[in-house]
Amino acid sequence: MFDKDLVISILTQIDEALEKILTRAARIRSADDFTDSPSGMETLDSICMLFIAVGEALKNVDKITSGKLLPQYSEIDWTGAIGFRDIIAHHYFDVDAQQVFWICAHEVGPLSATIKKMIRELH
Q1: pLDDT tens-digit profile of 15-52?
Q2: Using DSSP, how many helices (H) and how many strands (E) does the chain show?
Q3: First and final CA of the chain: distance in angstroms?
Q4: Residues near 63 by Cβ (< 8 Å), separated by ≥ 6?
Q5: Do the beta carbons of residue 62 and residue 70 sit within 8 Å?
Q6: What pLDDT is attached to residue 48?
Q7: What SS3 state is found at 106?
Q8: CB 47 within 8 A of CB 25
């Protein structure tokens, strides 16, 4: 069995990061809102940093739970969520603002809901 308190703590950190992403992305209406101004680029940078933290934390959760927890929540593409971290971290200068915008608009909400569900079910 894994350290449930540690996993809940990490999931809570992930949840907080996802909430920050949602808050920061709320004023972004298109990928151009990221790229057309210095403040937009700062928002893109901050969101990408949070995606790196989320991906790394998900890797840790998967490792701590010996790969058994995440697959129980098949509504999320965990490989994609973790892999996005790798794309940003290793190809930072090639990050596609359109892809980040799409992920913020379509994937972060469902991921956040699932993380909250995981926290509830582990308590």
Answers
A1: 999 999 999 999 999 999 999 999 999 999 999 999 99
A2: 6, 0
A3: 15
A4: none
A5: yes
A6: 96
A7: helix
A8: yes
